[in-house]
Design goal:
heterodimer; A: mainly beta; Immunoglobulin-like; 13-stranded antiparallel β-sheet; 30% strand; globular; B: alpha+beta; six-stranded mixed β-sheet; disordered C terminus
């Protein structure tokens, strides 16, 4: 914001504040802290999560909300955001002089997600939050959060306990490894965070303290056990100190800017991993702090300052000669005591490590007295609230550091018209050409900010353009004026109608072609500048050929029309293809344009609806918008994008937030095109993600009807979803992306990908490594006990001494998984998943282009074999095959009614395909068609659609539309047959969708494969087949031609949370494996694909469908001879469980140090010896 | 990414509370079927802690005088120290002592100055009996040796054999191994 505007705003704020409006009620600047007693005291805004009972800290400049924590009404309070525990800073905004209304009634512009301190990988679990200084005395206002530590990911529990030593596990490592013991309450460290706001400041000072709780004992960090662990892994513990820092969930809508790297934090981070820093350094970016900017008048920053009492973690990572490891790895990067390490960025989830814990904390002494010096350690960080750009945050940063600065002020003017350019900004580069600041122009084109003295250049960012640099110099204490010329884009205006001339909602995709001279180069290296904030251009993900321009295309821009017209700005002077589309039922029109700077090129297009889907409605049952912290799409734009893609039923499924799109649909007049359903995505951190729809929206609640998921079993979550909805049979419980690593329900609960069973677990006295790093806790396991609460084995015999509770000699604990199969739908297709990931990955027929480790070249599984990993589990499971296995399993057809305790029939799982869209341009692919008897969305209510879905009347597709018939029976029907049936398949597709072949499955086995040849967009196939037993049929169709550009490829691999942990584990010599070459790609373009839900054929003469049972299959591991399965499918359809006493393959692992990286079967002593020998000398 | 190995070392309980480090030993054994024969591989591992003894030992084999053990130097050291790592170890099948059919040794100097020596002994039974007991038992008296068994499919372990210390005069680490039943002929 320009200096003049800031002054006026402050003057107005002061005047209105004196009148008692939002913010302070006193004339003098004052800070206040209090518990929120009414809604009017909250901040509000697109990401606001504050509620009555939380705490507000405010002064004349800024306001923040700290969520309450600890117990309330007998229940623990957990985070309303993406974190786990309460007590976090969750809302932040400037003081705004006038209330700003919105559809939801919000007054402020909070756009911040959540922030909380972390201690290595542990977070604070609050006991309580309180005001310690209310500010009435004119001094700073303070809010204190206190508690102990706990894991926000249960799978890091043992690692954390070894490293942080926050709980007492003694010197017995067995206690550390035994899941039964890991829940000890012997807290040894207490934590405290004090949020402090002084009058007139634009920052909150955050002081975090860790204190030894042991009255008479010194506390070592890491624990002696942790030191042993690290030493035996050949890690020099003398130099290892535990890093401390903060998790920062800025949230989508905030662009993260790291001084020195600009906006390209993601790839700068990946490039930094290539440096392979040696331990005790951890990988990541070195930054002086982090900033986020937005177009919404709000920005945030997080910093630490050099403090003689605090050692900076990155500044103290040195080699034997005392040289800083980061300075050696990153030439030109300055490291000082204020430096922070940014080790991960996943979705909108990032964090920084700043301080390092001391090696020891002295005994606490008397808990009633103040903690003595040496028994505690504290460090301070600063959270700054700005006006929208980085400069308004960095101004405060420079002031806090006492740095001499000069002022840059200026204006941005259109290079042609010389008019003010609102929304444009400049990126400032230092003498080393590193982006160090960003200043945004106001409506008058003015900008201003402070910089340390020096020579700089700046480039104007006016999307989609980036100017050439302009040089200037800053002197300390002086003002420097610079006029910047904004480059001028070209504009394409598009009008879209249908064949009758009616205006259509539609999508416009502008496609450019890379010069032949740049063929093969990554686009981000030359086509756009991520660090400067230019937006990403998605490539066609086709190998470039210099001689073939069709292989060198990229998406320049995408825009949407709600009412048949839209405009899109592009870079001028290039030839573009403009594609106009409206989903897979319409044609696509292509027009070539070469727009000029400052001029508008008009395109009129007409689309025809060519695919007959009468009786079916297309739905997207997994969609995010602004109420999700990781989705920046405003709600109005969200419904426009859905309508433009021809999605007729949109289900709002924000993370732990209930959203209703209908008011926006009505306001925009889109009812003829799209309808919507109220829903939610219950998003746990490591138990999986579950959609529920339709559900009720509670307007009085801050999350509009979400509920607590922490420590809850899946069944509890499913019951709560149905209770928030309309009950079983009317509300759908959908398992999302079930194999998506830590976010996948099937992966986390270890649903076997071959037999669809979750095996119970056992624990010996600690010697079960697999369990140690598995998710744990009450959400995942319950101890097997009898009616008296005594722990028992799988035969019902007690395993503990009834009197003492001690484990009996030779006995072990048994645990049942809390996995529940009481869900309705499985999302087997998800928009983030290229087609290759749908089925279990099998050995390819050709090894061309694959980089397999040499030692496995001799013993490869046969082509088509399902691949195992080193634990004899399916290496890369696919959700379609999981669904097939479940459809064959008896438990998909009955459940135990909790009211009666008796089996009750149930509908088997329905498969759905959804976009899981988080951006405006990835909605609707794939989608699910539901047979409801009409394709007019305005005629349908949400429960009708939900019931049809639950009845299995659904087809999933990213392009082709396919129907399956058995006689007159349609998808979802059950039909009786007497030996012979006629199967008929009808495929329809628009001309731009290529369909080549189809596969008919019977009970999950492919029984027919045939070629598809569309004529006038239709193909029909039919065949008589014998059917001797009860069989379900499904048909799958595929094409080969990329759906680019209508369906945007995935060309950035998602950086998942477990990737982040992988990088942290890298210096510990962990990771990698022989299957990397065969892992399905996480990037790619989308090829046409569709699959139906089943038709059930009852052919065995009994009443009802008899499930066929899951066939015995095995997966094949590289380097091991084939062995036939020794167990047969039993007639009851259940695969025979392993006999008691047989060894589980996961039990034995190399059990001593010195062998951190083992390829092949880790139980194999030969492999261990080979590894030892290869690392010898 | 697997991080199970991160916790593998925690089993070395002998180190946790010690101020001076004793010689550490472990025995790992794997049984498998190969071409119809039963093969057992046993790896005996020994680590000498950093100190004067190791420095003197390494100095004898550090022919290049560079403070490191190159490949050839490590082989020579392993050949000499291998018997010390094996000690009086014996593998018994149903009570009968077996002779190894092959042996390899290797050594390395750890970054913290400790010296590790490993010996791999391989045994073969020409025909695999339906059931057998394999015993790993040291007949000498090291301070402590921990052992661990594993079997590879299609062998199955009929009874669990939790890893644990091996002491002279005790039955040792016993595992009962069985072949899976053959499926009936069609």
């Amino acid at each position: 914001m320009a200096p003049m505007k800031r002054f006026l705003a402050a003057l107005l704020a002061a005047a209105l504040a004196a009148g008692g409006l939002a913010g302070c009620s006193e004339a003098e600047p004052q800070a206040r802290a209090r518990r929120v007693a009414s809604r009017g005291e909250l901040i509000g805004g697109p990401s606001a999560l504050g509620e009555i009972g939380d705490f507000v800290l405010e002064n004349d400049k800024i306001r923040v909300v700290i969520q309450d924590g600890g117990e309330k009404d007998g229940k623990e309070q957990f985070s309303r955001g993406f974190g786990v525990y309460g007590g976090s800073l969750i809302d932040a905004d400037r003081v705004r002089p006038l209330p700003e209304g919105g559809l939801e009634g919000q007054a402020g512009r909070d756009q911040f997600g959540e922030m909380f301190p972390i201690f290595f990988l542990q977070a604070m679990r609050p006991d309580g939050v309180e005001v310690v200084a209310d500010g009435a005395d004119g001094g700073p206002a303070k809010v204190r959060v206190h508690g102990t530590a706990d894991d926000f990911l249960s799978m890091t529990k043992a690692l954390n306990q070894a490293i942080i030593n926050s709980n007492d596990v003694g010197t017995n490592p067995l206690k550390l490894l035994d899941p039964q013991q890991l829940g000890t309450d012997d807290d040894q460290i207490e934590y405290e965070v004090v949020y402090e706001l002084a009058p007139g400041d634009r920052f909150v000072k955050i002081t975090t303290r860790m204190t030894n709780r042991l009255p008479d004992k010194e506390l070592a960090i890491p624990s002696p056990l942790g030191s042993t662990l690290l030493r035996l892994l050949q890690i020099d513990t003398a130099n290892f100190r535990v890093p401390l820092g903060s998790v920062l969930l800025f949230g989508a809508g905030n662009e993260v800017f790291a001084p020195g790297y600009g906006y390209d934090v993601r790839f700068a981070l990946e490039d930094s991993f290539a440096a392979q820093l040696p331990f005790p350094a951890l990988p990541g970016l070195l930054v002086p702090g982090l900033v986020s900017t937005s177009d919404n008048g709000i920005s945030y920053g997080f910093f630490a300052l050099p403090d003689p009492k605090v050692e900076s973690f990155p500044n103290h990572r040195v080699d034997e000669d005392g040289n800083n490891l980061y300075e050696q790895a990153y030439p030109g990067v300055d490291v000082d005591e204020g430096s922070m390490l940014l080790p991960f960025l996943a979705s909108s989830f990032t964090g920084v490590f700043y301080a390092q814990a001391p090696e020891k904390l002295a005994p606490r002494g008397d808990a009633a007295k103040p903690a003595p010096e040496g028994s505690f350690f504290e460090y301070t960080t600063y959270f700054v609230v700005g006006d929208g750009d980085a400069a308004s945050v960095l101004d405060t940063f420079y002031a806090l550091r006492g740095e001499a600065t000069g002022e840059l002020f200026g204006e941005i003017r259109d290079a042609q018209t010389v008019s003010a350019v609102e929304g444009a900004s400049i990126i400032v580069y230092d003498e080393k050409n590193r982006p160090v600041n960003q200043l945004q122009a106001d409506a008058a084109g003015n900008l201003g900010g402070r910089l340390p003295p020096g020579r700089y250049t700046a480039r104007v960012v006016r999307q989609p353009m980036l100017s050439e640099p302009t040089a200037f110099t800053i002197e300390a204490g002086e003002r420097t004026y610079v006029a910047f010329g904004a480059p001028v884009p070209a504009r394409v205006a598009v009008q879209i109608t249908d064949e009758s001339g009616r205006a259509l909602p539609a999508k416009v995709t502008v496609v450019g072609t890379v010069d032949a001279a740049k063929a093969g180069q990554p686009l981000r290296k030359f086509l756009f500048d991520l660090a400067a904030g230019q937006h990403w251009r998605t490539s066609d993900v086709v190998a470039d050929e210099a001689g073939d321009p069709s292989t060198r295309r990229y998406i320049e821009a995408i825009e949407f029309a709600a009412d048949g017209q839209t405009m899109v700005d592009v870079r001028p002077g290039r030839e573009y293809e403009v594609f106009v589309s409206r989903g897979p039922e319409y044609t696509v029109q292509r027009v070539v344009v070469t727009p000029e700077a400052g001029r508008t090129t008009n395109v009129a297009s007409r689309l025809e609806r060519v695919v007959d889907t009468a009786g079916w409605i297309s739905g997207d049952f997994h969609v995010h918008a602004q109420p999700s912290l990781d989705a920046e799409v405003p709600l109005e734009r969200r419904v426009i994008t859905g309508a433009a893609e021809g999605v007729e039923y949109l289900v709002a499924t924000d993370h732990n937030f209930v959203t209703d799109y209908r008011p926006y649909i009505e306001r925009l007049g889109l009812e003829p095109w799209v309808n919507s359903m109220v829903g939610i995505e219950m998003t746990t951190l490591e138990s999986g993600h579950f959609n529920g729809f339709p559900v009720r929206r509670d307007v009085g609640e801050v999350t509009k009807g979400s509920f607590e998921w922490s420590l809850q079993t899946p069944q509890t979550i499913f019951d709560a979803i149905r209770a928030q909805g309309y009950g079983r049979g009317e509300t759908v419980v959908q398992v999302n992306h079930p194999r998506d690593s830590i976010m996948g329900y099937f992966s986390q609960y270890e649903l076997d990908a071959l037999d669809a069973v979750v095996k119970p677990k056992t624990a010996t006295a600690g010697l079960d490594f697999g369990k140690v790093i598995d998710p744990s806790g009450p959400a995942f396991y319950r101890l097997k006990t009898n009616a008296d609460g005594v722990a028992i084995d799988d035969k019902g015999a007690p395993v503990v001494d009834v009197a003492t509770g001690e484990l009996l000699p030779g006995k072990k604990f048994f645990y049942d998984s809390t996995f529940s199969d009481d869900f309705d739908a499985i999302e087997i297709l998800n928009g983030g998943m290229p087609v290759a990931q749908i089925h279990h990955t099998r050995m390819p027929a050709s090894l061309d282009g694959l980089d397999l480790p040499e030692e496995f070249a001799e013993t490869l599984p046969e082509a088509g074999a399902i691949l195992c990993d080193e634990d004899d589990l399916v290496a890369f499971p696919g959700a379609v095959d999981d669904w097939f296995n479940l459809l064959n399993h008896p438990r998909a057809y009955s459940r135990i009614d909790p009211a009666t305790g008796e089996p009750a029939p149930r509908r088997p799982y329905v498969a759905v395909g959804n976009s899981d869209s988080h951006h405006d341009d990835d909605i609707g692919y794939p989608r699910t068609y539901v047979r409801v008897g009409t394709d007019d969305p305005a005629k349908l209510d949400e429960r009708t659609v939900a019931r049809a879905l639950l009845e299995g009347r659904a087809v999933l597709t990213n392009g082709p539309f396919v129907e399956l018939f058995v006689g007159d029976a349609q998808i979802g029907d059950q039909v009786k047959a007497n030996g012979q049936i006629e199967v008929r398949v009808v495929v329809r597709a628009a001309p731009w969708i290529d369909v080549r072949r189809a596969t008919l499955y019977a009970n999950g086995e492919a029984v027919e494969r045939f070629t598809v040849k569309l004529e006038d967009g239709v193909f029909e196939w039919k065949k008589s087949r014998p059917v001797a037993r009860d069989t379900w049929f499904v048909v799958e169709v595929e094409g080969d031609r990329s759906l680019f550009p209508v369906v945007k490829p995935v060309d950035i691999p998602p950086f998942l949370l477990n990737d982040a942990f992988s990088q942290l584990a890298g210096p510990l010599n962990l990771g990698g494996g022989p299957l990397t070459a065969l892992e399905p790609p996480r990037v790619g373009y989308f090829e046409p694909f569709a699959i139906t839900n089943p038709i059930w054929v009852d052919a065995d003469g009994t009443d009802g469908f008899t499930p066929p049972g899951v066939p015995a299959r095995q997966c094949r591991k590289m380097g091991v001879e084939a062995v036939e399965p020794s167990m047969e499918v039993a007639r009851d359809g259940l695969r025979e469980a392993p006999a008691a006493g047989l060894m589980s393959p996961r039990r034995f692992k190399p059990s001593f140090g010195g062998f951190p990286r083992i390829k092949g079967d880790v139980r194999d002593v030969r492999a261990i010896f080979d590894h030892f020998s290869s690392h010898a000398h | 990414m697997r991080i199970e190995a991160l916790f593998a070392a925690l089993l070395l309980t002998s180190v946790a509370a010690a101020h001076t480090l004793p010689v550490e030993r472990r025995a790992l054994a794997t049984a498998r079927l190969e071409a119809g024969a039963l093969r057992v591989d046993v790896m005996l591992w020994m680590q000498l802690p950093k100190g004067k003894a190791v420095e003197r030992l390494v100095a004898r084999f550090d022919l290049r005088r560079d403070g490191r053990l190159e490949a050839a130097e490590a082989r020579l050291l392993a050949d000499e120290q291998g018997p010390a790592a094996v000690g009086d170890f014996v593998l018994q099948v149903d009570g009968r002592p077996m002779k190894p059919t092959a042996a390899e040794s290797s050594a390395r100097l750890e970054p913290d100055g400790a010296l590790s020596v490993a010996v791999l002994l391989s045994y073969t039974l020409p025909t695999a009996p339906a059931r057998l007991a394999l015993t790993v038992r040291p007949s000498a008296a090291p301070a402590r040796i921990d052992g661990e068994w594993s079997v590879l499919p299609p062998l199955v372990q009929a009874e669990p054999a939790p890893p644990g210390p091996l002491r002279p005069g005790t039955p040792g680490l016993v595992v009962r191994v069985a072949l899976p039943p053959r499926p009936p002929a069609p």
